[in-house]
Specification:
With 137 residues, this protein is mainly alpha-helical. The chain is built from seven helices and no strands. It has two domains: 58 residues, no CATH class; 68 residues, no CATH class. Helix 1 packs across helix 3 and helix 5 packs antiparallel against helix 6. The longest helix has 29 residues. It is elongated, with a radius of gyration of 21 Å.
Length: 137
């Protein structure tokens, strides 16, 4: 199955989610409400994106499956600079009389939406590993 052949994959995801809904909810009203939400997600393309993400993670090609970890490491590096290294550098630069005006902080305004989006996808990564589609090292 290619990345763009997602029709049957979405149906599989919907069926799987329906099974989870049936297991998690006892009343017919709750089940119907949650099933409606799943169908709305499928209609809006969210489930199709989940299937694309699953196929990307299963790829052996580093440029297909490795972009998400690469972006994650960039976010970690920027956060480490901002909250660990930068305060230390500024402290020592100030102590020794260096000009600190050239030392820049990470642009968290641009970084945080990316990081928050990735953290929201954390459950999908766990799902990929549990179902065995995560790329093997």
């Amino acid at each position: 199955m290619g990345v763009f052949d997602i029709g049957s994959g979405v149906a599989e995801v919907v069926k799987g989610l329906f099974g989870l809904i049936d297991d998690a909810h006892t009343s017919d009203e709750e089940k119907a409400e949650q099933r409606l939400r799943v169908m709305e997600m499928a209609a809006s393309g969210d489930l199709a994106q989940m299937k694309i993400n699953e196929n990307e993670a299963a790829s052996e090609n580093m440029f297909v499956s490795g972009w998400r970890p690469a972006v994650g490491w960039i976010c970690v590096t920027a956060l480490a600079w901002q909250f660990i290294a930068l305060p230390i550098v500024l402290t020592f630069a100030g102590l020794f009389g260096f000009d600190t005006s050239l030392i820049k902080d990470a642009e968290l305004d641009a970084l945080m939406p990316i990081l928050m989006g990735m953290l929201g996808m954390g459950a999908l990564r766990t799902y990929e590993k549990v179902t065995g589609v995560a790329r093997k090292k």
